[in-house]
Amino acid sequence: MEYVNYNANPYFNETSDCTIRAISKCENISWEQAYRNLFKISLKLKEVFCSYKVLKLYLKENYDAFSADILLKDFSFDVGKKYLLLLKNNKEIDCHLVFFEDGKYYDKSELNKKWKVFEYFVLKQREQ
């Protein structure tokens, strides 16, 4: 499992925007567009854009979801497929979303070995 430093934030801010960064990388869209996409759902649900409810609805609408219970370092993958990994750390209450492709995870900082994948998502194929 290889770490790749990635921060799509236009000002390279060190902020709690893991969801926006991961979605922008996976969908090959700008940080701003990912933010707007989440914000639309936020308004619909009357929740803050970074809430778990907003994230789950966005992922449900755009991705196929799979359950997991495996350490990040042991995640199995198909070459050429793009994944969003929803992670939990034994010491953390919150979850963390990262983009994963071909044995590499993209984030603004390297994660310790205690992070576990508890759900992963593959972008739905859109009808042409």
Class per helix and strand makeup: alpha+beta
Reported for the largest beta sheet, the result is: 6 strands, mixed
Oligomer: single chain
Helix content: 25-40%
Q: How would you describe the shape?
A: globular
Q: In DSSP terms, counting alpha (H) and pi (I) runs of 4 or more, how many helices?
A: 3
Radius of gyration computed on alpha carbons: 14 Å
Return the string of H and E elements: EHHHEEEEE
The total domain count is 1
What's the mean pLDDT score? 90
Strand coverage percent: 25-35%
Report the end-to-end length measured between terminal Cα atoms. Answer: 34 Å
Q: Output the strand order for the largest sheet.
A: 1-5-4-3-6-2
The total beta strand count reads 6
Which stretches of 5+ consecutive residues score pLDDT under 50?
none
Short description:
The chain is α+β, with helices and mostly antiparallel strands. The chain has helices at residues 18-27, 31-45, 52-62, and strands spanning 2-5, 63-71, 82-89, 95-101, 104-107, 115-123.
